Give the backbone structure.
Amino acid sequence: MKRLNLILVFVIFLLSASAVHADQRYEIAFPDLPSYKTLKCDFHMHTVFSDGQVWPTVRVDEAARQGLDAIAISDHIEYQPHKDDVSTNHNRPYELAVHRARMLDVLLIKAGEITRDTPPGHFNAIFLSDVNPLDTEDFVEVFKRAAKQGAFVFWNHQGWKGEEKGSWRDVHTTLYDGKLFQGMEVCNENRYFPTAHKWCLEKNLTMMGDSDIHTPDLRTKSLPEDHRTLTLVFAKKRTIPAIKEALQAGRTAAWFKQQLIGRKEFLAPLFDKCVTVECPHLRTKDAVFTKIRNDCDLDIVLKRTAGPGPVQIDLPARSVSLLKVDTKTPDEPLELKYSAINFIIAPGKCLDVMLKVPGK
Amino acid sequence: MKRLNLILVFVIFLLSASAVHADQRYEIAFPDLPSYKTLKCDFHMHTVFSDGQVWPTVRVDEAARQGLDAIAISDHIEYQPHKDDVSTNHNRPYELAVHRARMLDVLLIKAGEITRDTPPGHFNAIFLSDVNPLDTEDFVEVFKRAAKQGAFVFWNHQGWKGEEKGSWRDVHTTLYDGKLFQGMEVCNENRYFPTAHKWCLEKNLTMMGDSDIHTPDLRTKSLPEDHRTLTLVFAKKRTIPAIKEALQAGRTAAWFKQQLIGRKEFLAPLFDKCVTVECPHLRTKDAVFTKIRNDCDLDIVLKRTAGPGPVQIDLPARSVSLLKVDTKTPDEPLELKYSAINFIIAPGKCLDVMLKVPGK
Amino acid sequence: MKRLNLILVFVIFLLSASAVHADQRYEIAFPDLPSYKTLKCDFHMHTVFSDGQVWPTVRVDEAARQGLDAIAISDHIEYQPHKDDVSTNHNRPYELAVHRARMLDVLLIKAGEITRDTPPGHFNAIFLSDVNPLDTEDFVEVFKRAAKQGAFVFWNHQGWKGEEKGSWRDVHTTLYDGKLFQGMEVCNENRYFPTAHKWCLEKNLTMMGDSDIHTPDLRTKSLPEDHRTLTLVFAKKRTIPAIKEALQAGRTAAWFKQQLIGRKEFLAPLFDKCVTVECPHLRTKDAVFTKIRNDCDLDIVLKRTAGPGPVQIDLPARSVSLLKVDTKTPDEPLELKYSAINFIIAPGKCLDVMLKVPGK
Amino acid sequence: MKRLNLILVFVIFLLSASAVHADQRYEIAFPDLPSYKTLKCDFHMHTVFSDGQVWPTVRVDEAARQGLDAIAISDHIEYQPHKDDVSTNHNRPYELAVHRARMLDVLLIKAGEITRDTPPGHFNAIFLSDVNPLDTEDFVEVFKRAAKQGAFVFWNHQGWKGEEKGSWRDVHTTLYDGKLFQGMEVCNENRYFPTAHKWCLEKNLTMMGDSDIHTPDLRTKSLPEDHRTLTLVFAKKRTIPAIKEALQAGRTAAWFKQQLIGRKEFLAPLFDKCVTVECPHLRTKDAVFTKIRNDCDLDIVLKRTAGPGPVQIDLPARSVSLLKVDTKTPDEPLELKYSAINFIIAPGKCLDVMLKVPGK
């Protein structure tokens, strides 16, 4: 029995088998902005190398089939419950997954999660070149070592243990003043953090939305009604350096439970690229009938704020909706005033939008 | 108790209720050809006015939500099993449905089905201005009256009672020579007719695919794996006259059970618009890795005919597939030779296609 | 061309075709009570014979495939917007559908909807032998004629035009005192009527839940998360007379948007038949682990009211849920106190239930 | 920063989180036989401890939510591509998963895959007490050590590298004569092995069907049209020793792509428990109409072999089908002769069944 042959045979078999499993990619529909590409990213997830339950390549396969552009595997640095059985080299998840990521055209970012008791809480450092130096006792020193590598660092799930434990402490001021962290998760998996959202706006921190997934992700593809929590990154190119530049510049929105959470300056043009009012196909003496396209993966809901138009307009993802507007001047152009209730520009505040119906 | 008020109240209630039911349209994805719009059409269906089981407006609602551009309600002229209870005016289905069709932007074509025992069989006359004159005894006279109205006429489900009953008779020659019919259904609902397909090619008849639906269509939207049998019409514009011109010119394909059946001159450019090979994202020393987009609603399957590339490539509808091609010259452009097994250009014959992978 | 042969051929073809369409029945899972069969019924729906959009047989097909036991087609008596095209004999919907109902084993109940402006509103009279005599001007007289035929009559969608228009008037007292109506819809299609619910309890009226469907029902089968509004009838047998007896005795519950609305005396034993706590499969020193079966088509949600057990227990339809209960005496029997939040026994009031976990 | 506290906090958090993920169990419907329980088992799967991609507990979670009764994690003994990062103690997968299995009431069987080049091929040894002694060079010695532990051993995916490589060699005779293996996989994941099937019948080996899963199983629940390949075990009790006794006695069937493959002596009574013909609900002068229940998770298809009844009867999983039988003696009992085309009792041979329709 020759072990070498056996292994060769296996490698060939596995490659062809895995190619079958990973060869479909279902793109997520969010259009590019006029000046930026809209990249779908998840910067927080785990594998068997900390407390996750999958091998690192599984995270790449999940990302590819769900249409993600970039991911960061961010295993806990200080917390490794499987260490009796699994290597403790913090660079291994990246090293094991990067070839598969290149094959499947998923941008893989080297990362780690700085995992301390809350407060001060957990932080992800991404765009690292070597995760191992971050495994050191002194808390602020960890951030300095991340900064030395040019990392982008964000505070994870701020209120996950309650608002008191998630409150802003002196150490956060130290880190913030030293520009040692630059973003916060406004949502993580199934939870939204309004305090983090407020701080992002007040302190000019980048808004992040991540899955923090530990188990296998069972979704074969992303669906509007069942999607991962993600960060949309408005980047100049589809490259890792361009993502880093966009995060440093704060050009993001979080996609969370059928909502987009972000700054008005990005959500307003994104809405305009998602929603298109067509020229009316019928004008009667007291109404116009037109179609509205929604080309994105969000089931958009609009509530009227003033003037003509129905009280509510539903625009399901990737569909065309038929709209009747009552009007005594059906040949004139119309401006319909609505609030886009799943485009969130501040805690409790939605984006105001205008639907322009062309005249004859 | 005032009946008038009652009715007014009802009309208002019904209008608002029905608006809710019909306001989503899920477009079918088949791209336009370089010179033509690709319209999704169904020219054969029934209502309570012959042996169908729905009111004519239901056919419009079904078409709108499934993303159809045009339909013809083609109730049997000579066969009206509900005539004890329902009006026998052959124009009523059109008259009752046309306002709703205009509201929902479905092009509604006035039509009737000439329904004689097989042989000679059933024929649909569409683009009629008045269906009633076609309700006359003499078979050939019916066709002459249709012709006088400028109708386009096609032979329905040729082999539905077996090849013998569906064979070509003298009367068909009479009709064909007189240019009294111009097309044939190559498929109808769940059945494909290879003899009809052959005759369409030999005799230059237009290929049609229709649902012939009698019951309510339960599909909320068209899905690649569960769609209506339809005719794709390659028309200069999205208007009824343009559809008529395209049918007369033979510019169609039938969409039937995840297959497209049509002439090579239309299927070849349609394939090229549906499938896009991207620039490779990875070139190793013995392989290139690239992505192939399929932007249409057909789960395309390709079988290799010669040269490099995998034996089979699956391109699910509206997705991106990852492709690895083994090659010793990864920087050179590649031409991959495949047969598109669900693009049918003649009975038993598939479209040959070339996938061009760009070089470095 | 022989018309007779043609028609014979057609009839044969249609019979076989329709047999294909209607031959699957997906049963709805609600267990029988100790003394009664639990029948799934819909007593309110429309066809082309009033303002509906389908032929009467379609209502039978829908009922059969969705697993209903009994339906009443209840076309409006006084309101027939299609009367220019469709017969006005009020018995025709029943007559046209009854043979198909017998073939598919759906119990078809002859009925009509007494349709007056609101107030006094709409009422369904079911178990009629002849609907036509109810087409008379005098409102109370209609009810007397229904009573003479032994009909069961209920008030439809009481608050559909607002609480004021749905308020209890003298005429309702007249009808009620004369025992001329015996039930009320507590829910109709997408709406629940708490006032009707309250009156049913106060005045001992039978609670009804119906679809009031006008368009084709697109559901291929009933699903827990997408089902028709129905009336569960607790009957001695699966026959029309037994249903009538049960309605007269008030033995019903309404199934509405994943909730059951009914009297405690029926919901309590129904819950006990739906939910089974198994014997624990694991007892540790501080917890027991057991399984709970939910054999019905309701996604049951339980909230803890007191004592041990998790704060909330989700019991998805037709599944088994794993339950861990913390306890210091794992070998002793446990009694877990919960509120079944989708078993509604009065407006705003849920059924209290006890889960008994067996001891060792 | 106290590491100990941190870890305690984490453990609590993870336990509650994972409880949420794993608490639904969707049972697979295959009825018990008159004398045996029908257990749903998968005896072949992998984790990160060999070439799989998940942590061992994931295999338990998958089994629980899909309604399995028992699994064996059977990591390769001689093949461990992750050994640079993961422990090589062959008992670890079992040890890490067994507590979770007890919590979720999944019977976990300790096992290993004897992985040699083909021929002689791969074999699973299950019901081991210690896997490590099987990691030894001499091939036959491995089997002897398994036998000493009382293991049940079966030959995996016999023809996976072609019939020549899967042919029966002297070493198989040695093992077989020494009673060192007792079963064969007749199907594995997506493949069926007719030669293995034939040998099972000829040599009285137990038929197995397994998933051999390496990646995460994305199914949330088992569906008739998308299920894992499993072994149905007809056991006296739901315990590990009872499963072992049943496997030794050959009481199994493989569930593979909507088919059951097994011995006639088990498939015949299983069919009778799955399919119930009800008493006819309608007898006309030339036909009877009755209902047939299919209570299992197989979409059963029947083809008529002789006598009355439709040419084909489709019995979708967990549904009731309406059946019309033409007969001149509708009051007499009927015996309908069919072949159950997805009950496979030998390569190319289906089970003959009789449907008995009661007389009046």
In short: Chain A has two domains: 24-261, 269-357. Residues 269-357 of chain A form a domain with the Immunoglobulin-like fold (CATH 2.60.40.3090). Confidence is low (pLDDT under 50) at residues 1-22 of chain A.
